[in-house]
């Protein structure tokens, strides 16, 4: 079974090599098949890795057999394995959906380019998740940023270019801050491997208190920009709402999450709990910004008139939950964060894909123009409704489970007052998701002149979304097992 | 696995509703037979279930002590479920005649049956969490009924209904989470689950109780959170009657009884003086409801405000925390349900036959529709509480409960409110029967199939007044177990 130890590297290599072979294949169909195949293989390998890690525990993998302070090291624990399974399988489903629709959103000659970028993006995100080396992580961050910009601009419209530039600039600022943070750490410890840095820091941190605080701040802000922590989210609504729907799904569900994982690694693997607890102000700030994001993201979403922007702002709110969990600073908060990452990745991609289908079939993206859509596309809106209910936190759907865990986490952490924030935020969620559903299905005026099922997509094309919804339901129903697994992972993190 | 049968009355109407959504019926008559059969069968099944075994419980999904979907049958649940199922049958038969003129019957009956299943779920919930789920689900299932007409006005009201209900449910959820962190359990137990807890944090408990009371109180139309209820009168009459009589407001009341007596327990509530603060809101509810009802010109709105006030009585019965008052409250829960549904059916019949919905339009209608208005008059008198009607019995017990607490104030409020009730209901009867001017009388009695539910319900009202012991024994039995 030891061959499984090679799989993380193999996954990254398959994706990257695949990306470079694809431009050589002239035919679109080959491209799609090839991209799906590589991502599919990597998700199977991720699954095997997860099983392996679950049985034999965390392992370190030396790339090219160089020992650790010199060579690059990958560190695969349960959490990394879960995340890589999530990233690859959600990316697979999104790509599966895009096979049917991508030509409708981007020009034919860009299709090959799009799939190349997707492969690079997924590979880079996996790299961020796996790596135990700071500089290696930085390289993957940059690669993923470029690829993410690519899948936004691939649509070739004026507003896409504008949104991409905005994203590119802010994202570069973020990477720059991260790089400076790395520089601080490197100058203190002389190491880039996180395990080694941790060893050095635990002995010498008293001497470098200010430098450490600064570098913590730099990492927080830098990665905060990249994963849309409120109020650093300004690039997100433009980028996510203008990109092709499949790209939006990819960006919102996966790209934001990888940086969070990296941030958690920096906090708990590199600095370690001991140092973090020296600076309570840091986690408190993250908690406050997370809470602000939960509330403000939802309020901003209520004010939007464009359906994709609503979903995009909802991502800001959901990222708020994720930072909230980190900010709680206890195990249960961290566990809830991981669970919420899973839940949000699945649900948000389902939301973006359903909304994408609506926009594709009606040609409208304004909320008022989408009234009565429930009569024309009942199944699509039905899938949207289930996802929306999960977002709002109707029990047994995964959204409720994660909110519930956040609530328990904040009470256990002695911050009961933040339960109110969670509840207000779920109410606000209801305020922008329900009108879409209600105006879609009900209302005499809304339904006038609409023909039942006239614009519904075929079952074949809806299959990927259905798979996502089923995955979400399974996630909710078997949440106790998954949470137990995550808790085991967090303990050995 | 025998205990899993408890799921049947919850799921059966819902599955039947979904099946109805899929298949197409040849004509309306067949569809009505199908619906009638489902609802009656459900009642038969519930009775069969209850007669075989009085105490059953079943865990559907258990994730941890809180996230646990757990059903249990107890006497309070039996009372609620029988009340709901029986009134549902009447409403169904009434709706068969009434709904065609509102249109979209298929959608109506789909959600109508769905709501029955949800209501049974509320009655059989064995812990707060399950109750909460069904409470939220109830909002979602009744929403399409409220906005049935689909007009702009209806959608606006629907939004109000959703915001109020979800706001309330969220507060309740906050309370549930807090309770859970204190006790690590939310299962309903007679005399409450907080017994063993050291009461050094009385303030916290008081806050939790207030939060939950206000949260669940939204559906029970507690003033000042009642305004969704009169607004929801845009719904078709059978919906209004159901919302008022059993499904929604009584679920709120039922949840409050569960919270007060099965989670906190009357002793703990005494300790933290939770009842004291709440009773101010309750008194306000009784008086405000009656006063607002006085100057409503729309018949349905007048009845809606009357519901607000009557619910106040039931809440009073809950918060006085003694046996008499709770007996009175539960009795009034039953009586008010039967009376109010009759009143709504009568008003609906008037609208159905003459398209009239304001009081000044119905002068002399008593002579045109003597049976309908006769039933209305009997029910109105019962609600006022003139002996020997059933309203009198429940108010008698409530007054006794108030006196037991040495609070004459409550008895006085009950009397004042009874006067006000007479003040807003009897003028309708008087205008209907004594128009003061002679008109040519044309008989406009509604069709027989509509009259039968009305007359039968009136007969039940009268019976409950003359022989209150039938229900009283059951209720006293319940009360002994929990106070």
Automatic annotation (TrEMBL), chain A:
Query: Which Pfam families does this one have?
Result: Proton_antipo_M
Q: How does it sit in the membrane?
A: Multi-pass membrane protein
Q: Which residues cross the membrane?
A: 6-25, 34-54, 74-99, 111-131, 137-155, 167-192, 212-236, 248-268, 280-303, 310-332, 338-359, 379-397, 417-442, 462-483
Q: Where in the cell is it found?
A: Cell membrane; Membrane
Task: Name the major location.
Answer: membrane
Q: Which GO terms describe its cellular component?
A: plasma membrane
Keywords from the UniProt entry: Cell membrane, Membrane, Transmembrane, Transmembrane helix
Show where the NADH:quinone oxidoreductase/Mrp antiporter transmembrane domain sits. Answer: 132-428
* PANTHER family according to UniProt: NA(+)_H(+) ANTIPORTER SUBUNIT D1 (PTHR42703:SF1), NADH DEHYDROGENASE (PTHR42703)
Q: Which protein family is it in?
A: Belongs to the CPA3 antiporters (TC 2.A.63) subunit D family.
Protein name listed in UniProt: Multisubunit sodium/proton antiporter, MrpD subunit
Q: Which organism is it from?
A: Paramaledivibacter caminithermalis (strain DSM 15212 / CIP 107654 / DViRD3) (Clostridium caminithermale)
Tell me the organism's taxonomic lineage: Bacteria, Bacillati, Bacillota, Clostridia, Peptostreptococcales
Automatic annotation (TrEMBL), chain B:
The protein's topology relative to the membrane is: Multi-pass membrane protein
**Where is the chain membrane-spanning?**
6-25, 32-50, 76-96, 108-126, 161-184, 204-229, 241-264, 276-294, 303-321, 333-353, 365-388, 408-436, 448-467
Which key words are in the record? Answer: Cell membrane, Membrane, Oxidoreductase, Transmembrane, Transmembrane helix
Q: Does the keyword Hydrolase apply?
A: no
GO cellular component entries: plasma membrane
Q: Read off the InterPro entries from this record.
A: ComplexI-like_HydComp, NADH_UbQ_OxRdtase, ND/Mrp_TM
The source's domain of life comes to Bacteria
Pfam families on file: Proton_antipo_M (PF00361)
Task: List, for all copies, the residue spans of the domain called NADH:quinone oxidoreductase/Mrp antiporter transmembrane.
Answer: 125-421
Query: Where does it live in the cell?
Result: Cell membrane; Membrane
GO terms, biological process: ATP synthesis coupled electron transport
The GO terms this record gives for MF are: NADH dehydrogenase (ubiquinone) activity; oxidoreductase activity
Protein name per UniProt: Multisubunit sodium/proton antiporter, MrpD subunit
Q: What is the lineage of its organism?
A: Bacteria, Bacillati, Bacillota, Clostridia, Peptostreptococcales
